[in-house]
């Protein structure tokens, strides 16, 4: 990851490298931007990353489906919306259309 890329990554907080080392990251540029750079050579990081990405996709799909339900049934009560929020872990204000 070059200094040019890091310069455009305003909200980046950390870079995790799936490898034995961090030589593909400009460490000085990352340090100037206070971005943590780490690697996990003995961990199954790729599998964990794939799981996290899959779960993010799942949450988005659930959120989209709930949004469609709530738009289809505009009189859906706030109590039901609160219950859906508790089941999914989504805040009620993110469920309301």
Mean pLDDT: 78
Tally of discrete structural domains: 2
Contiguous runs where pLDDT drops below 50 for at least 5 residues:
none
| Structure class | mainly alpha
**Euclidean distance between termini CA atoms:** 39 Å
| Proportion in β-strands | 5-15%
Q: What is the helix content?
A: 55-70%
User: Which sheet architecture does the biggest sheet show?
Assistant: 2 strands, parallel
- The helix count comes to 5
Query: How would you sum up the global shape?
Result: elongated
Task: Write up this protein.
- Strands 1-2 form a two-stranded parallel sheet.
- The chain is elongated and about 55 Å long.
- The chain folds into 2 domains: 1-43, no CATH class; 44-97.
- The two termini are 39 Å apart.
- The chain has 97 residues and is mainly alpha-helical.
- The protein has helices at 3-8, 27-32, 45-72, 78-88, 92-95, and strands at residues 14-17, 36-39.
Short account of what is shown:
This protein has helices at 3-8, 27-32, 45-72, 78-88, 92-95, and strands at 14-17, 36-39. It has 97 residues and is mainly alpha-helical.
Task: Set down the secondary structure blueprint.
Layout (H helix, E strand, L loop, with lengths): L2 H6 L5 E4 L9 H6 L3 E4 L5 H28 L5 H11 L3 H4 L2
Parallel strand pairs: 1-2
